[in-house]
Amino acid sequence: MTNNVLPKSLYPKYDAFMECDKSSEDARIILFGAPFDSTTSYRPGARFGSAAIRRESYGIESYSPYQNKDLIDCPVLDCGDLELSMGDTEKVLAQIEAYTDEILQADKIPFLLGGEHLVTLGAFRAVHRKYPEVVIVHLDAHGDLRDDYLGVKLSHACVIRRCWEVMYDGVKRDKVMCDDASLDKVMGGEVAYDKVMHEKVGRGDGSVSANDLRIFQYGIRSGAREEFVWGKSHVSTQFYNLDGLAELANRLKGKQVYLTVDLDVLDPSVFPGTGTPEPGGISFEELRKGLTLICQKMAVVGCDVNELCPPYDSSGISTVAACKVVREMLLAF
Ligand SMILES: [Mn+2]
Questions:
Q1: In a domain, 250, yes or no
Q2: Structural contact between residues 321 and 313, judged by C-beta atoms closer than 8 angstroms
Q3: Ligand 1 centroid to residue 277 C-alpha, Å
Q4: How far is the CA of 276 from the centre of ligand 1 (A)?
Q5: Which of 25, 227, 273, 333 has the most CB atoms around its CB within 10 Å?
């Protein structure tokens, strides 16, 4: 005779980031992973990042003494990793975008775990569609503003430039009723795009005012010269550290924010497990304080944490740092 009492699962929460197993009705934030690293320019392996964060989170307290809050009490659901069509970058981005879209349509906040930094583009496309006025706060060692990397436009080295184009294309479509290719001919390229953008924000002279900028970078300490030349008139860059974040929070009051965190903004001495380590970075404590400030004071409507590459840190400390970053962000919301 069979009895229908099955043994209890030994690790019922094993598949979710710490305590992030609330019902999809109750959850306000949806955590999900995009294990993608096909465009990584230097050392691959970031595809293992999201699974490592989830797995290693069991070694870390869900309670934060910094904030006196516990993830047990937080409305977060970890939905696991997307199954991605590796090898077809555009398709992968479309898959990330479609899933982000589902989350947004349910009026929840998408929280994406990479993967390499290009995954941001998929999520941001969906967020921008829902919130066309959204601005980006970007923490990273690298500007990621290249127009292409060795001829590749969809590269993690170009991700913020591509996000900028998403913002810009929206403006172009608003202003001029024609497709992008013909717009290029009619308007005469980038300079004309600038003009269109500044008309949109009420400045017809094509000059750049601080108020026109919609991308705010922090911690940047590496890039090609042309990235910084281009960046000067298109983004706001705080080099080397997170100074000025509190002022930015005041300035962005009422504005929707997409937050993207490339963990290599941390110094490699505390975060060696990443594909493109860059000495001279910030401490864990600076990052924790900065992210808490952003998540508490700014209206974050979507975010991601990316570029953990576990194979390059045999100590596992980088993964623990990533887990703690994610915990502190979730608690600060
Ligand atoms: Mn980076």
A1: yes
A2: no
A3: 8
A4: 7
A5: 273
